[in-house]
């Protein structure tokens, strides 16, 4: 199936230009002016923005589905919802859980891979734990946290056939800095978070290969002028990526601007950290083994009121970032496209509109609302 997107303002090389994009099967076949293609479905997108599909590397669920307890069919339900938000690729974030439940979740992911798909691509797995600090556990069940266990991690990665792409660890947990190179050898990008690590310990983890900071500023010891701690370490480092949750609750808009100004637009990754309540009204929900209540869109643990993920979507994150920063669309888009792709190591195939890359494309109207989503060349959402 060929699709020819005509007359759109196409985002390439960090700027917009009016041109055409030809999708052929799963691939972006051509980008250029006045393209023609026999047998192609021609879609006139004049007046609209044509941008790379959004990538969410950290999300725990949506539309009534919790990743930890999801079936293969449930994963597909999330995929179809994600497409409505402009997301074309996402990682299922498994909250710290039992070995048995984690392996069951991985098994359902494997089953999903063999299914026919009509939404965003579930491109892999993110393990948020279990090697995390109890003092900054956030919504993590403390009794399931543990010291690094490479045999367990190998078992998980073998079960996932190498598709655990991302893991969050706490640098101060005994042995973590030394184990980071081993985690990387397993094919996992390592992020640090849920942490009260001092500056030097965090710096050691970064020196040993940590590439990102999980939901920066949340479940994390804050910067003090005498004790910069983990937050100071991640803000200072030129190469490390900072995840940010831009829902206006996890980070004040001024903090969002400060992180972007400190890190630069090329080292910030917008995530949702969404839970099963995303796309649904307020009410009672689950996050892994935890009971969660959502009031006015704000998700918190029933037990103690700790914030527990979000109800954010990528489409809303884009609008919030534009509002919070006042920056133009072309400067904000990398936070949802190029940067997460580079962090996870998939920029060779997704994250930008280039000939030969996978045909993950989103069409935005003049108000930056998602009106069409193409995943691997297939139209999976139309407003």
Molecular structure report:
The chain is α/β, with parallel strands linked by helices. The chain has two domains: 2-50 and 354-382, Roll (Urease, subunit C, domain 1), CATH 2.30.40; 53-344, Metal-dependent hydrolases (TIM Barrel, Alpha-Beta Barrel), CATH 3.20.20. Helix content is 26%, strand content 30%. The protein contains ten helices and 21 strands. It has helices at residues 72-84, 99-113, 150-159, 176-185, 199-207, 229-236, 253-263, 314-325, 329-332, 338-344, and strands at residues 2-12, 15-24, 27-32, 41-44, 49-52, 54-59, 61-62, 65-66, 87-95, 121-128, 164-169, 189-192, 212-213, 241-245, 268-271, 283-287, 290-295, 298-301, 361-364, 370-375, 378-382. The strands form four sheets. Strands 1, 2, 3, 4, 5, 19, 20 and 21 form an eight-stranded mixed beta sheet that branches. Strands 6-9-10-11-12-13-14-15 form an eight-stranded parallel beta sheet, with helices on both faces. A three-stranded antiparallel beta sheet has the order 16-17-18, with no helix packed on it. Helix 1 crosses helix 2. The longest helix has 15 residues, at 99-113. The chain is globular, with a radius of gyration of 20 Å. It starts with a strand and ends with a strand. The model has no long low-confidence stretch (mean pLDDT 97). Residues 49-380 form the Amidohydrolase-related domain. Keywords: Carbohydrate metabolism, Hydrolase, Metal-binding. GO terms for molecular function: metal ion binding; N-acetylglucosamine-6-phosphate deacetylase activity.
């Amino acid at each position: 199936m060929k699709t020819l997107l005509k007359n759109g303002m196409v985002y390439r090389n960090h700027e917009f230009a009016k041109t055409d994009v030809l999708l052929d099967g799963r691939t972006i076949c051509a980008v250029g002016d006045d393209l023609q293609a026999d047998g192609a479905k021609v879609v006139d997108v004049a007046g609209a923005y044509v941008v790379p599909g959004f990538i969410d590397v950290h999300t725990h669920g949506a539309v009534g589905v919790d990743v930890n307890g999801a079936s293969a069919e449930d994963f597909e339900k999330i995929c179809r919802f994600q497409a409505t938000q402009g997301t074309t690729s996402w990682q299922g974030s498994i909250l710290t859980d039992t070995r048995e439940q984690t392996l069951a979740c991985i098994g359902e992911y494997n089953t999903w891979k063999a299914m026919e798909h009509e939404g965003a691509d579930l491109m892999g797995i993110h393990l948020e734990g279990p090697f995390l600090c109890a003092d900054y556990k956030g919504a993590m069940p403390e009794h399931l946290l543990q010291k690094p266990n490479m045999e367990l991690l190998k078992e998980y990665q073998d079960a996932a056939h190498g598709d655990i792409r991302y893991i969050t660890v706490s640098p101060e947990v005994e042995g973590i800095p030394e184990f980071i190179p081993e985690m990387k050898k397993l094919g996992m990008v390592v992020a640090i978070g849920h942490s009260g690590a001092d500056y030097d310990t965090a710096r050691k983890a970064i020196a040993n290969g940590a590439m990102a900071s999980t939901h920066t500023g949340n479940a994390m010891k804050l910067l003090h002028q005498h004790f910069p701690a983990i937050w100071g370490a991640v803000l200072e480092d030129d190469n490390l990526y900072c995840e940010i949750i831009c829902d206006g609750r996890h980070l004040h808009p001024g903090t969002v601007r400060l992180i972007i100004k400190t890190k630069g637009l090329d080292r910030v990754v917008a995530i949702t950290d969404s839970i099963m309540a995303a796309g649904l009204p307020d009410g009672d929900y689950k996050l892994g083994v935890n009971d969660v209540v959502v009031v006015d869109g704000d998700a918190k643990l029933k037990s103690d009121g700790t914030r527990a993920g979000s109800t954010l979507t990528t489409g809303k994150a884009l609008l919030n970032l534009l509002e919070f920063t006042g920056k133009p669309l072309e400067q904000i888009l990398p936070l949802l496209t190029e940067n997460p792709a580079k962090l996870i190591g998939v920029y060779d195939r997704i994250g930008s509109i280039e000939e030969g890359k996978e045909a993950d494309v989103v069409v935005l109207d003049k108000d930056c609302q998602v009106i069409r989503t193409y995943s691997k060349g297939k139209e999976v959402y139309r407003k």
